[in-house]
Design brief:
Elements: H1 4-11, H2 15-23, E1 30-31, E2 37-38, H3 41-55, H4 60-66, H5 71-104, H6 114-121
Antiparallel strand pairs: 1-2
Helix pairs in contact: 4-5
Length: 123
């Protein structure tokens, strides 16, 4: 059994983050007879999972849904996040391509460059 401070230190986060996760339903923690949170191995592992899901970009509502008891519900959230991240990768790659071109463009003004104009018109 661990205290909230011990778990927070182990995970490298603040104790208030663990409290917030519990408040929004992303984390379930037992209380002892005095009302203090007690983290058993399962609760620590659950907190570790929440942290990992947050670090890969899931919001707390998405984390809660991804940890749903039914596999299909969890998979739907994860699949949606994958699609979102893949779209972001495409957008970032386009941004890099555009910026590389502008850095190397021989035209003084980007408006004078037909390639820059093409990039600007892309959505």
């Amino acid at each position: 059994m661990k205290t909230i401070g011990e778990v927070a230190a182990e995970l490298g986060i603040e104790a208030h983050v663990l409290r917030h996760w519990e408040d929004v339903g992303a984390l379930t923690v037992r209380r002892d007879g005095n009302g203090y949170r007690v983290y058993d191995d399962n609760a620590v592992e659950q907190a570790r999972t929440v942290l990992k899901l947050r670090r890969v970009g899931l919001s707390l509502p998405e984390v809660t849904a991804a940890m749903a008891p039914t596999k299909s519900a969890a998979q739907a959230v994860v699949e949606a996040k994958i699609a979102e991240l893949e779209s972001e990768v495409v957008q970032r790659q386009r941004a890099i391509t555009f910026l590389r071109h502008t850095a190397e463009c021989r035209h003084r003004y980007l408006d004078d460059c037909p390639d820059c104009a093409t990039f600007v018109r892309e959505t």
